[in-house]
């Protein structure tokens, strides 16, 4: 079946280097590798508020037990990856470029790997709010890399139903093959998950977009759709170009809808989920299993690149050890070569955002040539898939004129790296945008803190005024009371005086009478 | 000569009347500029600028009585924003009003607190919770770091702790590169 | 009709107040740091100049010339313009206090702006009737606004540029203004019809 596809502007075609890691099937790391000494599970693994710890050091936990409770609505739960004893709840190094630490639950595995009691969730008979709560408590977040809590995206939108549900199997970034392998080996879970999402969002159609450099995955998924007789679900092969896997880009290719600046895709009746997330939603609802592991690719400067299913909290160097890192490896990158983040150490744990561990070396990623001045050649604008003007964003981010940078829609930048990839002056453009974005966020936080402080100050002044008035009113009331009492007393004594005077007058009268007679 | 004087006098009378009418018709009450200046100030209410709070300082700036570089908690950023708003030149922070320090919050050392409520009365944003003879504590997220509570405490049990960087508040660094040097 | 078009065209481009006649440089340099203030200043000057030019022409034709008081031109024009500027300042203070604060001293300085006095005086020499005077004043102020907006846009870009330290601010501004002037020389001769 041929379907009309659309195009997005820009994009690049880097060498994909995907063949190396496609040779072997996905292996369950927990089964094939020696048991790690400890699982370090960070509490803050998704966008939004960090969950608060629900366990203390010394407690025993079972696999899948809730160890981090969601804090607020934009937050997702965290679970124990295996059964064991909680060694500590302490600050540990995070898989984050800053090299800072955050609160983690450290579990010492007991080797038994016992599941906590769990049961399928009767989601068909639950209200939408209850289903969302179930997904939140199962810790389901987007596995495409943005780790946005999925329960907030399972939303039929303003019209009560979605026009199109897009499942993102594009996987456009070089080296990464986890979604490809998952589609080849576990298509049923993905399609069943897509069907669940279709019913939860009342979507009219489901389009699963897969880049056409994955013909095996396309064929296997199509066969699975036929086999399962999934309704209204269609597999669509999209042209290969980075970043076709970006949500807005894939929506544009599949439906032609351009999601405008400042708007969400649900405003247009479209929503996008990753294939891995769809599978996880199936596991969470149909099997009642919370998210405790994910599939990731180990690639780059290793002898045996491949995909593993890894439990969260596993140290990255344990995973890489099984693939044979070459001696000149000097860095781990979480993610791909275009959008990945350099890890501060090799022992950091695998988290929900880890779709790939890219082992690098100086030969593979030579130090970039020095930055030269921007000549406004416009190659970056040609390459930008979000239709932005990267040279303008660069100009104003560099000069720290953040107001103008926002006028050029800085926050619509998806940090895909296409502009830096094509820049002939070797300018690290994405670094400038990240700097500008974090500065702007910091300023907005300061501003809202200042606004809160002003409100509290004004309330305090008002409170003191009110206290003063109340006190004055109280004193006035008291004074009036005393005055009334005094007046009463005076009236009493005046009355008494009258009586005494009358009596004295009578006595005087009587005396006069006796004297007279 | 007379005609010249008459013409000028006529002109003056007509224009004067028009301006007088306009002055009444377009009268402006209050000063909305103060709101805008107050919106830029950091609301620490610390008094380091020499005025009893941020609003009086904003009013002084609007009147032209105070300079824009007297606020240490606002820092260079704040001075630049005020300069942009008012169309004046940005200056460095005035030394006599204090120096820009790292953001900190007040912390009460609990085993020294005697429950006297003097710090509660001093806090301009009511960020200290407590009552007479009860333990006092600072709500860290509401504390602006103004240090007004340090003086009234009779047992010196309040310390200022700088806010540590966390993963949530970490900022990307400004990209720095080496200028390529050609070998001679 | 075409003559009116050429009057406006001539005033906006060919004989641009700031860039060709080199008048009114004070607000041109002083208010052009930001685009919004430049637009505000341009609008204020348009109001003042159009009204001023028309009023001055009427004043001259009906009051000064019949009474042989041409020598009072400068004085009378300045008084009229000063009143109009004061009126404008009151209106701006009421409608946009921020613009009022930002324009600051440059608003009353419109009174002493050589462009705002020069255009009515030039208008007299060109012997325009009332409609032509208004168009001439309007066109000149439009040219002033155009130059101001172009310059403000350029200065906003210059803010982020690597200008050598001693050239930053006004110095590079004047150099840029000079180059703009050179560019506007390209319009010479465009309004020659007859």
For the largest interface in this structure, which chains are involved and how many residues does each contribute? A-B, 35 and 30 residues
Q: So what's the overall shape of chain C?
A: globular
- Helix tally of chain C? 8
- Taking the alpha carbons of the first and last residues of chain C, their distance comes to 13 Å
Shape of chain B: flat
Q: What percent of residues of chain B adopt helix (DSSP H or I)?
A: 25-40%
- The number of strands of chain C is 0
The CATH topology annotation of the largest domain in chain B reads as Alpha-Beta Plaits
> What number of structural domains do the residues of chain C give?
1
Radius of gyration of chain B equals 26 Å
Average pLDDT of chain C, to the nearest integer? 89
Q: For the residues shown, what is the average pLDDT of chain B? A: 84
Assembly type: heterotrimer
Helix content of chain C: 55-70%
User: Total domains of chain B, how many?
Assistant: 2
CATH architecture of the largest domain in chain B: 2-Layer Sandwich
Low-confidence stretches of chain C: none
Largest sheet of chain C: none
* SSE sequence of chain C, one letter per element: HHHHHHHH
Count the DSSP helices of chain B.
5
| Secondary-structure-derived class of chain C | mainly alpha
Map the helices and strands.
The complex is a heterotrimer of chains A (517), B (184) and C (194).
Chain A: E1 27-28, H1 29-32, E2 39-42, E3 52-53, E4 60-61, E5 66-69, E6 78-79, E7 84-93, E8 101-109, H2 128-137, E9 164-169, H3 178-185, H4 187-201, E10 205-211, H5 215-228, E11 233-238, H6 247-255, E12 270-274, H7 275-286, E13 293-300, E14 306-311, H8 316-321, E15 329-334, E16 341-342, E17 356-361, H9 379-383, H10 390-398, H11 402-407, H12 418-422, H13 429-516
Helix pairs in contact in A: 3-5, 4-5, 4-7, 10-13
Chain B: H1 2-25, H2 32-40, H3 54-63, H4 75-86, E1 104-108, H5 118-122, E2 128-129, E3 137-138, E4 158-162
Antiparallel strand pairs in B: 1-4, 2-3
Helix pairs in contact in B: 2-3
Chain C: H1 2-14, H2 25-30, H3 35-64, H4 73-95, H5 97-103, H6 114-125, H7 130-158, H8 170-184
């Amino acid at each position: 079946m041929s379907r009309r596809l659309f195009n997005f502007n820009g994009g690049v075609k880097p060498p994909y280097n995907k063949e190396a890691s496609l040779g072997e099937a996905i292996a369950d790391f927990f089964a094939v590798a020696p048991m790690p000494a400890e699982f370090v599970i960070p509490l803050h693994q998704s966008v939004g508020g960090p969950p608060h710890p629900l366990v203390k050091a010394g407690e025993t936990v079972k696999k899948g037990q809730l160890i981090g409770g969601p804090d607020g609505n934009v937050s997702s739960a965290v679970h124990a990856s295996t059964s064991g004893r909680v060694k500590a709840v302490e600050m540990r190094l995070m898989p984050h470029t800053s090299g800072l630490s955050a609160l983690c639950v450290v579990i010492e595995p007991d080797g038994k790997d016992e599941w906590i009691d769990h049961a399928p969730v009767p989601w068909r008979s639950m209200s939408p709010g209850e289903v969302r709560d179930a997904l939140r408590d199962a810790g389901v977040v987007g596995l495409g890399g943005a780790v946005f809590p999925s329960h907030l995206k399972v939303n039929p939108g303003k019209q009560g139903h979605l026009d199109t549900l897009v499942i993102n199997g594009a996987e456009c970034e070089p080296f990464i093959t986890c979604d490809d392998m998952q589609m080849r080996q576990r298509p049923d879970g993905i399609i069943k998950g897509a069907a669940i999402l279709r019913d939860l969002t009342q979507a009219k159609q489901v389009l699963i977009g897969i880049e056409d450099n994955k013909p095996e995955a396309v064929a296997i998924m199509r066969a699975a759709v036929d086999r399962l007789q999934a309704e209204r679900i269609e597999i669509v092969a999209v042209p290969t170009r980075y970043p076709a896997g970006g949500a807005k880009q894939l929506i544009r290719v599949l439906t032609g809808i351009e999601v405008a600046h400042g708007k969400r895709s649900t405003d247009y009746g479209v929503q996008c989920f990753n294939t891995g997330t769809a599978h996880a939603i199936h596991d969470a609802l149909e099997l009642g299993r919370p998210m405790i592991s994910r599939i990731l690719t180990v690639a780059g400067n290793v002898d045996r690149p491949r995909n593993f299913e890894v439990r969260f909290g596993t140290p990255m160097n344990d995973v890489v050890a099984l693939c044979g890192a070459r001696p000149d490896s000097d860095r781990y990158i979480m993610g791909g070569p275009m959008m990945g983040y350099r890890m501060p150490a090799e022992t950091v744990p695998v988290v929900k955002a880890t779709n790939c561990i890219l082992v690098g070396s100086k030969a593979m990623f030579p130090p970039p040539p020095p930055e030269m001045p921007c000549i406004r050649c416009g190659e970056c604008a040609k390459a930008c898939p979000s239709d932005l003007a990267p040279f303008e964003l660069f100009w104003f981010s560099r000069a720290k004129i953040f107001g103008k940078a926002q006028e050029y829609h800085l926050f619509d930048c998806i940090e895909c790296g296409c502009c830096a990839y094509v820049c002939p002056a070797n300018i690290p453009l994405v670094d400038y945008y990240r700097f500008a974005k974090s500065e702007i966020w910091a300023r907005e936080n300061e501003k809202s803190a200042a606004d809160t402080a002003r409100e509290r100050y004004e309330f305090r002044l008002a409170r003191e005024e009110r206290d003063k008035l109340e006190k004055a009113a109280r004193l006035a009331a008291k004074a009036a009371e005393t005055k009334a009492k005094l007046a009463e007393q005076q009236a009493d004594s005046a009355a008494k005086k009258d009586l005494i005077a009358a009596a004295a007058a009578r006595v005087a009268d009587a005396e006069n009478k006796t004297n007279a007679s | 000569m007379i005609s010249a004087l008459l013409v000028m006098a006529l002109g003056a009378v007509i224009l004067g009347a028009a301006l007088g009418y306009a002055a009444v018709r377009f009268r402006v009450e209050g000063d909305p500029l103060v709101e805008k200046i107050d919106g830029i100030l950091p609301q620490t209410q610390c008094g380091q600028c020499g005025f009893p709070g941020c609003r009086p300082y904003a009013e002084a700036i609007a009147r032209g009585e105070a300079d824009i570089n007297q606020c240490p908690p606002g820092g260079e950023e704040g001075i630049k924003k005020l300069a942009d708003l008012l169309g004046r030149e940005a200056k460095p922070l005035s030394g006599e009003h204090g120096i820009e320090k790292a953001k900190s919050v007040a912390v009460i050392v609990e085993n020294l607190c005697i429950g006297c409520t003097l710090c509660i009365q001093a806090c301009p944003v009511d960020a200290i919770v407590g009552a007479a003879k009860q333990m006092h504590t600072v709500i860290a997220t509401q504390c602006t770091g103004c240090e007004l509570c340090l003086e009234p405490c009779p047992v010196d049990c309040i310390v200022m702790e700088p806010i540590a960087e966390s993963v949530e508040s970490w900022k990307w660094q400004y990209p720095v590169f080496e200028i390529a040097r050609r070998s001679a | 009709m075409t003559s009116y078009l050429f009057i406006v065209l001539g005033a906006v481009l060919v004989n641009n107040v700031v860039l060709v006649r080199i008048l009114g440089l004070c607000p041109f340099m002083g208010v052009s740091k930001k685009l919004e203030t430049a637009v505000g200043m341009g609008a204020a000057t348009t109001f003042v100049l159009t009204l001023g030019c028309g009023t001055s022409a009427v004043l001259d034709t009906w009051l000064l010339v019949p009474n042989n008081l041409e020598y009072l031109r400068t004085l009378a024009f300045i008084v009229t313009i000063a009143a109009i500027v004061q009126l404008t300042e009151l209106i701006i203070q009421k409608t946009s206090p921020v613009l009022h604060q930002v324009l600051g001293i440059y608003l009353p300085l419109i009174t002493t702006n050589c462009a705002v006095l020069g255009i009515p005086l030039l208008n007299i020499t060109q012997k325009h009737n009332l409609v032509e005077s208004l168009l001439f004043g309007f066109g000149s102020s439009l040219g002033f606004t155009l130059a101001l907006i172009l310059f403000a846009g350029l200065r906003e870009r210059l803010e982020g540029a690597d200008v050598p330290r001693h050239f930053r601010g006004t110095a590079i501004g004047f150099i840029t203004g000079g180059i703009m002037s050179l560019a506007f020389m390209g319009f010479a001769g465009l309004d020659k019809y007859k």
